[in-house]
Amino acid sequence: MITREKKFKLKVSSEISSLVPYPPGKPIEELERELGIKGSIKLASNENPLGPSKKALQAIGREIANLHRYPDGSCFYLKEKLSSRLGVSGDELIFGNGSNEIIELLIRTYLKAGDEAMMGDPSFAVYPLAVQAAGGRAVTVPLTKDFRHDLVKMAKAVTKKTRLVFIANPNNPTGSIVTRGEFRAFMDKMPPEVIVCVDEAYIEFVENAEFPKTLDFVKEGRAVVALRTFSKIYGLAGLRVGYGVADKEIIGYMHRVRQPFNVNSLAQAGAIAALDDDEHLQKTLKNNREGKKYLFAELSALGYPCVPTHANFFLVNVGDGPAVYQSLLKKGVIVRPMASYNMPGYIRVTIGMPEENRRFVAAFARIVKTGRQYRAR
Q1: Any idea what the CATH number is for the domain that residue 165 is in?
Q2: Residue 257 lies in a domain
Q3: Total structural domains in the chain?
Q4: N or C: which end of the chain has fewer CB within 10 A?
Q5: Are 215 and 226 contacting, i.e. CB atoms less than 8 angstroms apart?
């Protein structure tokens, strides 16, 4: 490691200096090198185990020859397709480098220093980080005992300083949802100056008839932003493309702070083609449905019932999450420990391909049968 005499002195705001960065995972290749293992499986990041659709890959391949050109800064063709598909106008759509960027744009546009943004706890880790970085105050409301957003308490916690509310639906990391009636009652209590952001990254996996239709609230003229992504069910996580849907006035101000060319050309081509591949989407749903049924049954038989989920991942209380994570890692099975979410007893597991699910169950069974300290509490 190179050491140098520093000839500068940084002045960093307390909001930035006190931030704890989002913990990224290491590349599988590096983990295998460090642990001396091969053939690892990754069930940690809620990715689509089937990968992208063939149609998307073909479209991306055709676009490669144009990489010397800047991408379409307006995402014209993707906007046109989604506008027709969702029944909204083009000026009610905004695209980003993943839906994460839309979260950043919302905060940069509508939150000033000292303002409050509310969210459940635990929920998507990026919300409080982005709010704090902007000088805002993240107000967290604990989930209910069954790991669901407590919309009643969240409504009561709104103050004159509240500008944004984030609701991940389904919630990450719990996989829970809020229902149509719950969301309607919550929205009816919201002051008109509060923007409610509903993060629907996993919406395509939901098969519950009581799931809210967030776009209906946009069409009613409510201060709602629905976030969607191509990173999950569409399998384009590596290209980073997501979008937001909201009233055109809300979107219009966000465009003022959006950087030009923020969605690359390969991402746009892949997303457009992915929307046309319903067969791939249905295969993904079938794999997820069957995988969840298998995993829940197997883990329950081992004495580890899973938290009900509406997404492509689930939580399970294993007693000592970090220890089980490390033990699984040594067997080439990568899951997500939940200690950073203040849930040290839990691990989060992405539903994989059948062979990956079987390998996880086999590894997990060997670990818990030889380590009594891992019993769920």
Answers
A1: 3.40.640.10
A2: yes
A3: 2
A4: N
A5: yes
What's the CA gap between 245 and 257, in Å, rounded?
Answer: 16
CA 266/CA 261 separation, integer angstroms: 12
**Would the pTM count as exceeding 0.90?**
yes
Q: What string of H, E and C letters represents the secondary structure of the chain?
A: CCCCCCCCCCCCCHHHHCCCCCCCCCCHHHHHHHHCCCCCEECCCCCCCCCCCHHHHHHHHHHHHHCCCCCCCCCHHHHHHHHHHHCCCHHHEEEECCHHHHHHHHHHHHCCCCCEEEEEECCCCHHHHHHHHCCCEEEEEECCCCCCCCHHHHHHCCCCCEEEEEEECCCCCCCCCCCHHHHHHHHHCCCCCCEEEEECCCHHHCCCCCCCCHHHHHHCCCCEEEEEECCCCCCCCCCCCEEEECCHHHHHHHHHHCCCCCCCHHHHHHHHHHCCCHHHHHHHHHHHHHHHHHHHHHHHHCCCCECCCCCCEEEEECCCHHHHHHHHHHCCEECEECHHHCCCCEEEEECCCHHHHHHHHHHHHHHHHHCHHHCCC
Q: Are residues 227 and 283 in the same domain?
A: no
DSSP strand pairing (195-199 vs 224-229): parallel
2 lies in some domain: no
113 and 139 inside one domain:
yes
Q: C-alpha 53: how far from its chain's center?
A: 20
pLDDT at 369: 85
**Closest Cα partner for 304 from 323, 313, 317?**
317
Percentage of the chain beyond pLDDT 70 is: 96
For residue 219, is pLDDT > 70? yes
Regarding whether 263 and 344 lie in a shared domain, the answer is no
User: Would you say residue 28 has pLDDT above 80?
Assistant: no
Closest CA to 14 of 133, 141, 115: 133
How far apart are the C-alpha atoms of 237 and 229, rounded to whole Å? 9
Cα–Cα dist 26/336, whole Å: 12
